[in-house]
């Protein structure tokens, strides 16, 4: 039988078909692997917080056994009742909300004004002043001089000790100034030609165009102010009505640990001995974590689109 020869045209067509098949298969494999990897990453990221929620709704004595993963084994609200047993927790919540809102608004407004001033090339003192602010990021007077400064300013045992020290941040100023540098100078020059002054330019042009970076900075400042407890311990611990939520929750965890290690210890946060026996430091810590995290989790989705854009500040240069 005579051998059948394959024409060069057929061989070329078969090779092209194989390459096209591989090209079609590669995106499918990549998308499948990428999807599975991202699902795994989401599970690894979210599981610790999910487990914390599970522990917070589980009976404290049962939590000690371990083995809690996706669902409470003995569902209870006793952990949250222990957290909210004291009436001081509600006043502390209001103080934390007030300090967070005021600190965020004042920090954003004043820091942005300073960043705009130091971004202007015609301002002759912008370099030495910027250097002074940068030095504050590397050198700190320390805890004791800081306390005496607050005392000399008559801020001890006042609400403003939470707000005034946080009205300015050198790091935030640098980030905002970098973002302002990406705004076309022609916009500012056009506004000056139309007779606008510096404050009008700042309020009508610079401030609205800085929304992405301001949302990012606002989230940083708000989270920092919300989670702060050491300043309440340092400056207002002798005045219960100025206590913050985080400080009260810290005291609750501490008193829970002391009460479980020594049943004779009474709880200053308002927990009865019966409630102490039904919870454990681990379950209280989980409930405290959830209570402290919920307000930030409610705010973040509304700022996410600005947050992602703001993180790219300075990453692209044209």
Automatic annotation (TrEMBL):
Alphabetical list of Pfam families matching this protein: BPD_transp_1
GO terms, biological process: transmembrane transport
A Gene Ontology term for the protein's cellular component: plasma membrane
Source species, domain of life: Bacteria
Keyword hit for Phosphoprotein: no
Keywords from the UniProt entry: Cell membrane, Membrane, Transmembrane, Transmembrane helix, Transport
Protein's UniProt keywords contain Cell membrane: yes
Membrane topology per record: Multi-pass membrane protein
Domain ABC transmembrane type-1: 93-303
Residues annotated as transmembrane: 28-50, 89-116, 128-148, 160-180, 201-226, 282-302
Cellular localisation: Cell membrane
PANTHER family in UniProt: ABC TRANSPORTER PERMEASE PROTEIN MG189-RELATED-RELATED, POLYGALACTURONAN_RHAMNOGALACTURONAN TRANSPORT SYSTEM PERMEASE PROTEIN YTCP
Family: Belongs to the binding-protein-dependent transport system permease family.
Protein name: Carbohydrate ABC transporter membrane protein 2 (CUT1 family)
Annotated source species: Fontibacillus phaseoli
């Amino acid at each position: 039988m005579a051998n059948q020869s394959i024409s060069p045209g057929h061989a070329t067509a078969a090779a092209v078909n194989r390459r096209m098949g591989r090209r079609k298969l590669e995106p499918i494999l990549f998308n499948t692997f990428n999807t599975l990897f991202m699902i795994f990453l989401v599970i690894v990221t979210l599981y610790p917080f999910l487990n914390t929620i599970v522990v917070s709704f589980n009976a404290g004595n049962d939590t000690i056994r371990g083995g809690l993963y996706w669902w409470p084994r003995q569902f209870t609200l006793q952990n949250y009742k222990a957290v909210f047993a004291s009436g001081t927790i509600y006043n502390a919540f209001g103080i934390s909300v007030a300090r967070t809102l005021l600190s965020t608004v004042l920090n954003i407004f004043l820091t942005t004004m300073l960043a705009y001033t130091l971004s202007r090339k015609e301002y002759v003192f912008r370099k030495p002043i910027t250097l002074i602010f940068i030095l504050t990021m590397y050198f700190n007077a320390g805890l004791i001089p800081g306390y005496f400064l607050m005392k000399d300013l008559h801020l001890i045992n006042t609400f403003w000790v939470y707000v005034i020290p946080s009205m300015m941040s050198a790091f935030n100023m640098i980030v905002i100034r970098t973002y302002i540098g990406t705004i076309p100078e022609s916009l500012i020059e056009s506004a000056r030609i139309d007779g606008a002054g510096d404050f009008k330019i700042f309020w009508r042009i610079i401030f609205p165009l800085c929304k992405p970076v301001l949302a990012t900075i606002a989230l940083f400042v708000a989270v920092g102010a919300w989670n702060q407890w050491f300043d309440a311990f340092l400056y207002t611990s002798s005045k219960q009505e100025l206590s913050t939520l985080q400080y009260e929750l810290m005291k609750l965890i501490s008193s829970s640990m002391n009460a479980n290690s020594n049943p004779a210890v009474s709880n200053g946060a308002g927990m009865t001995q019966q409630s102490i026996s039904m919870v454990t430091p681990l379950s209280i810590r989980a409930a405290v974590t959830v209570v402290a995290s919920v307000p930030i989790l409610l705010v973040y989705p509304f700022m996410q689109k600005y947050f992602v854009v703001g993180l790219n500040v300075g990453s692209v240069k044209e």
